[in-house]
Write a structure and sequence with these properties.
It is globular and about 90 Å long. The protein has two domains: 202 residues, MFS general substrate transporter like domains (Growth Hormone, Chain: A, Up-down Bundle), CATH 1.20.1250.20; 204 residues, MFS general substrate transporter like domains (Growth Hormone, Chain: A). Helix 7 packs antiparallel against helix 10. With 532 residues, it is mainly alpha-helical. The chain contains 20 helices and no strands. Pfam families: MFS_1. One of its GO terms (cellular component) is plasma membrane. Keywords: Membrane, Transmembrane, Transmembrane helix.
């Protein structure tokens, strides 16, 4: 007997048909995350082999079947070869990796993960302090003491040549570390050696007043620093599991932001002690960089031997040159590369020249501009330190929890642009302090997430050293873009205003150009498709 039907098609007699009337509304029962997971499990229709132009030719395929089937056991293989589905590597069915196993096949313990995190964080802080102190405060002051008329040009020159050296070194040593076979592993020897070269080169600058020799030694330091940095960053891909990569990347990025902030404070403190302070700053760089590579490999779990790893092609000049070739068919990779280059370019446009900005823009015409500029830089450093710590404890873990990298990176770039507008609106110490707070928070969040985004867009994990080396070119190219753009803007302003010195209005245009560049970077990051 059929029950009478009520409204909506359900029985009115109280009987519930199992599997029919009690079936839930999936649109309401499933969460947004459940729907995304189901969508990810969806495999597209099989693709035909692109390399079979005769696939639709019946006569050709008939001959192929007849010929191949004469080989014992090959009949089904020949049939399958006519139109074989190409597996979709983006489908979750093909992604069977354990997110707590690193790319090298090891499942690190909690203690090992903590050691990796500590190593990345401490070394990021330790490297950033002397590098920023020397490159943005001490080195500009040295050039000013040698020849104040050419200080802007010399600072742009040394950063541009040094950046080119760093660019080449990053790719070469990233590739060499991929191919290194030793009982100490493939990354460890380069990290230790690079630190020693950097430290010795920086220490030698303290003993010369020759501009040519300073440029040469600084370029040698850039080479050593990138010899260490390229394999160092590749460890993030090699040994940090996907599940915790965002958190460790967050602490690493925050360590960079905190170290750069402290670098400004430390550099300003050394500057107030005159010639003796400048000498001590170079000695600080010598000590920290010489020891940091050794410190990192001791704190991290020991890298396994690479002596018996399967060798690819033998290392040669041809192989190295071929590794300069960036990945193909990887648009996300290039959006990340150009986006980071422009974002960091805007950052260095302001940071590299912060001493000159404070002297010639905020305190233009003040006879005590140098001392007051040092005080501003120190206060800005403290402000940026606080907001960077906030970014450190929030940004990385939050993005791991929500599973998103792209949008937070783009928003952080926009926040930096807002901060860069503050000195334009308020030409005073307060404007610089607001810049430090707002732009510093944006930069801290950016650094906390961006490295995880870079790893996510790698097209081939087996070439992580090379590809991350190319992505890290953003750090190098951004220095060139930042220093050269500021130098060009200042030069144009001086020419337009027929001024022998640097007019204050020139630095106002520096902030405008930096804002435009950073917003373009945010737009490019949002074009990345395969990373949320």
């Amino acid at each position: 007997m059929v029950d009478e039907q009520g409204t909506g098609g359900k029985p009115t007699g109280g009987y519930i048909r199992p599997g029919i009337d009690d079936r839930p509304d999936l649109d309401k029962a499933l969460s947004a995350e459940d729907k995304e997971n189901i969508a990810r499990l969806t495999a597209p229709m099989p693709k035909k082999r692109a390399a079979e132009p005769s696939i639709d030719d019946e006569q050709t395929q008939g001959v192929k079947l007849a010929t191949d089937s004469q080989v014992p056991g090959s009949g089904m293989a020949a049939l399958a070869a006519i139109d074989t589905a190409v597996p979709d590597e983006d489908s979750a069915f093909m992604d069977m990796r354990d997110p707590m196993v690193s790319a090298d096949g090891h499942r690190p313990t909690k203690t090992e993960i903590v050691r990796l995190g500590v190593g990345f964080t401490v070394s990021a802080i330790a490297c950033a302090i002397p590098w920023v102190a020397l490159s943005t405060v001490i080195l500009p002051r040295v050039f000013e003491q040698i020849d104040s008329g050419s200080k802007v040009f010399m600072l742009g020159l040394v950063n541009s040549i040094g950046a080119f050296v760093a660019l080449v070194a990053n790719i070469v040593f990233g590739t060499l570390s991929d191919q290194t076979r030793s009982r100490f592993g493939k990354r460890t020897p380069w990290i230790v050696l690079g630190g020693l070269i950097t430290g010795l080169s920086i220490g030698a600058i303290a003993f010369t007043r020759s501009e040519a020799l300073i440029v040469t030694l600084w370029c040698l330091a850039q080479m050593g620093y990138n010899m260490m940095l390229a394999p160092y960053v590749a460890v993030m891909s090699d040994r940090v599991p996907d599940k915790v990569r965002g958190t460790i990347s967050g602490f690493y990025g925050a360590g960079i932001a905190v170290g750069q902030t402290l670098g400004s404070v430390v550099g300003a403190a050394f500057l107030t002690h005159g010639a003796s302070g400048i000498f001590q700053a170079w000695m600080m760089g010598l000590a920290i960089f010489s020891l940091i590579g050794i410190f990192v490999v001791v704190v991290w779990p020991r890298e396994k031997s690479s002596k018996y790893e399967a060798d690819g092609e033998k290392m040669s000049a041809k192989v190295i040159l071929r590794n300069f070739r960036p990945p193909r068919n990887a648009p996300d990779f290039y959006y990340a590369l150009v986006g980071r280059t422009l974002m960091m370019g805007g950052y260095w446009m302001i940071t590299t020249y912060q001493l000159y900005i404070a002297q010639d823009y905020i305190y233009a015409g003040d006879p005590h501009a140098t001392d007051k500029a040092a005080a501003i830089i120190a206060t800005m450093g403290v402000i940026t330190l606080v907001v960077s710590l906030i970014a450190a404890v929030t940004a990385g873990p939050i993005t791991d929890r929500i599973g998103r990298r792209k949008l937070p990176v783009a928003l952080a770039s926009c926040l930096f642009a807002v901060g860069a507008a503050m000195p334009l609106l308020f030409r005073s110490p307060m404007g610089m302090y607001l810049f430090a707070a707002i732009a510093g928070l944006g930069y801290g969040v950016y650094n906390a997430i961006d490295q995880a985004l870079n790893v996510a867009v790698l097209p081939n994990p087996k070439e992580a050293g090379k590809d991350l080396g190319i992505l890290n070119l953003a750090n190098t190219l951004s220095t060139v873009i930042g220093t050269m753009m500021t130098s060009i803007v200042v030069s144009i302003a001086k020419s337009a205003m027929h001024a022998s010195g640097t007019p204050a209005a020139a630095y106002a245009w520096v902030f405008v150009v930096a804002i435009v560049i950073v917003l373009i970077a945010a737009a490019l990051i949002m074009r990345i498709r395969n990373v949320k």
